[in-house]
Amino acid sequence: MNKLFASCLAIPFLLLSSRGIAQEAAKPSGIVVERTFWVKAGKEKQFATLFDRTQLPRLKALLGDHQILSFSTAAPLIHTGNDQWAFRVRIKWSSWDAFTRDASARGDQKSNPTLAYEQALFGDLVTDRKDTVIQEDNYGAN
Predict the structure, then answer these.
(1) What is the pLDDT confidence band of residue 79, given thresholds at 50, 70 and 90?
(2) Burial tier of 39 (Cβ tally within 10 Å: 0-12, 13-18, 19+)
(3) Which whole-number Å values give the CA distances from 92 to 21, 99, 134, 141, in the listed order?
(4) Chain-centre distance for alpha carbon 10
C-alpha cells in the first residue's frame, strides 16, 4: 500500500519536471539581429577596412564576454553598380539585456580621439543603416 501511495505521489512530480524540460527546450536561445549597412558607391574597400579596424574587434570582445553567442558578416562578391552595395552583419545576442546594453553604451565609445575619428569616417561612408530583429530557422548542417 505504501508503494502504491508513493508511486501516486511520484507521477505528478515526474510530469511537472518533464513539462519544465519541454518548456526550457522551447525557449529561444538569444536574439538575432541583422545589421545592414548601405555603403556609398566606390567606398566599399574603405568601408571594409574601417569595419575591420573599428567594429570587428568590438564584436570579438562581445563574443569573448559571452554578450553575443555568434556573429557573421556578408558582402556581395560582385558590385552591381547601382549604388546598392549592402554589407550585413548577423549577430546572435545572448539576451535582450545584452542587446539593449550594447545599444545604450554606444555613446561611451567616443572617448578615444582616434576611435572617434575612425567612427566618424565610418559613418560618412554609410548612406543608411538598419537593425532588424529577425527569426532565424536553421536547417541542415551548420
Answers:
(1) low
(2) buried
(3) 23, 9, 10, 18
(4) 42
The Cα angle at residue 79 between residues 73 and 85, in degrees rounded to 5? 55
Kindly tell me if the per-residue pLDDT of 33 is higher than 70. Answer: yes
* Single-letter residue type at 121: L
Q: What angle do CA 92, 54, 46 make, to 5 degrees?
A: 110
Grid look-up 574597400 returns 45
Tell me, what's the pLDDT at 5?
Answer: 44
Do the Cβ atoms of 38 and 85 come closer than 8 Å? yes
CA-wise closest residue to 91 among 125, 53, 46, 60: 60
CA-wise closest residue to 126 among 56, 38, 46: 38
**H-type helices in the chain, by residue range?**
2-26, 44-50, 56-64, 96-105, 113-125
Count other Cβ atoms within 10 Å, centred on residue 135. Answer: 7
Which pLDDT score is estimated for 69? 94
What is the structure's pLDDT at 114? 63
d(CA 83, CA 21): 50
